[in-house]
Amino acid sequence: MSAATRPSGAIIRTAEQGDAAMLAVLLEQLGYPATADEVVERLARLGQLRTAVVLVGEVKNEVVALATSHVFPSIHATPPAALLTTLVVHAAHRGAGIGAALCRAVEDWARAQGAIRISLTSGLQRAGAHVFYERIGYQRTGVRLGKTLTPASHPT
Ligand SMILES: CC(C)(COP(=O)(O)OP(=O)(O)OC[C@H]1O[C@@H](n2cnc3c(N)ncnc32)[C@H](O)[C@@H]1OP(=O)(O)O)[C@@H](O)C(=O)NCCC(=O)NCCS
User: Fold this and answer.
1) Which residue, judged by its Cα, is nearest atom 43 of ligand 1?
2) Comparing C-alpha atoms, which of 92, 105, 21 is closest to residue 60?
3) For residue 99, what are the CA distances in angstroms to 17, 110, 144, 153?
């Protein structure tokens, strides 16, 4: 994606390896602490996929927001399914329209991949984020169930 300035004033662009340190700060704010080195490795892996995108929001040359999205084929519909898989705006920059701008950019990307719908899952504790998502047009349509996968005790 080419860099584009959105109404929030933030520049939205694809992430680069040089963003890793700031992305680590953002991931910590999201509740998923990671080292910059880990982020470098993850960016490299995601960068090999044509079915994933990592976008950042930049204000005054500083990365202040992160969003990722994935599309994948499914058996229940012909258009690919799209997921918004990460969204976080730096605490000092919330409420300025950057989250909404990043979501619009993600939706544009997913649409360009052929998706006709985008979904996300979000922890129950993120009540404020749920209000945000509803404010920008997302509807509550299900629940998320998760299970930790322990290593198999009887390898075959
Ligand atoms: C949720 C989050 C991404 C929103 O980003 P943001 O840049 O602050 O949101 P915006 O400024 O674009 O807000 C868009 C609209 O949602 C509303 N909104 C945003 N956060 C809100 C909140 N916590 N409670 C109620 N409304 C909220 C805004 O008031 C705005 O409404 P408006 O159109 O009437 O002006 C950001 O608060 C965040 O990073 N939170 C912590 C991480 C997180 O929970 N991520 C979601 C994981 S699923």
Assistant:
1) 88
2) 92
3) 22, 16, 22, 43
Q: Which of 12, 135, 136 to mutate to test the pocket of ligand 1 (most atoms within 8 A of CB)?
A: 135
CA-CA distance, 135 to 138, in Å (whole number)? 7
Confidence of residue 113 (pLDDT cuts 50, 70, 90): very high
Q: List pLDDT tens digits, range 62-106.
A: 999 999 999 999 999 999 999 999 999 999 999 999 999 999 999
Name the band, by pLDDT with cuts 50, 70 and 90, for residue 5: low
Long-range contacts of range 72-79, CB-CB < 8 Å, 24 or more positions apart? 79/114, 79/115, 79/116, 79/117
pLDDT of residue 4: 66
